[in-house]
Amino acid sequence: xxxxxxxxxxxxxxxxxxxxxxxxxxxxxxxxxxxxxxxxxxxxxxxxxxxxxxxxxxxxxxxxxxxxxxxxxxxxxxxxxxxxxxxxxxxxxxxxxxxxxxxxxxxxxxxxxxx
Amino acid sequence: xxxxxxxxxxxxxxxxxxxxxxxxxxxxxxxxxxxxxxxxxxxxxxxxxxxxxxxxxxxxxxxxxxxxxxxxxxxxxxxxxxxxxxxxxxxxxxxxxxxxxxxxxxxxxxxxxxxx
Lengths: 115, 116
Description:
Chain A is an all-beta fold. Chain A has strands at 5-7, 10-13, 19-24, 31-38, 42-50, 53-57, 64-68, 74-78, 87-94, 105-106, 110-114.
């Protein structure tokens, strides 16, 4: 079974631009979560989608948004990029995401560099 | 709120040495506990998990026991290999009151280097 895939793997943008990252979950998984990883803040939860609806959101500004499509693929968008948005963005999928015992499976991440 | 505290690294060991990485947590309710591993340039891989008190998770020679009385989930391996060099993250999973979905809360990570 194919794992979680994320595209692109690497991105370089300049301040003020916007960016869209894509995540394809494991087949049959309907919950997709996004996390930001930085050296200073570590791994932080951005948001979670299930059946095209955002169910949960972390403490990030409104410049960070996402969506999920009917095939469970998800995208996240960051508008008006700031230098501090440079990070590894990780996507994780799980079948339902409605139990604390569910395991989240992670993709390889998208490395975003903002210049 | 929910939080995870794990020992700061880096940790440097010789091959075949014994490994312990400490992890303690604070949580409301009954979280599940996880160890994830991240190799250079890669995403997170699940190493092991435990979903209730006294459960022991194990995989690839690594073990961790869910200790509710000490709110701990320490990672151990009896004999490390060079290939175990990576960053290890302890995490807990809880159901959010917002939407009923789970989310992971991670520790800061511990970098392990194993020398031949």
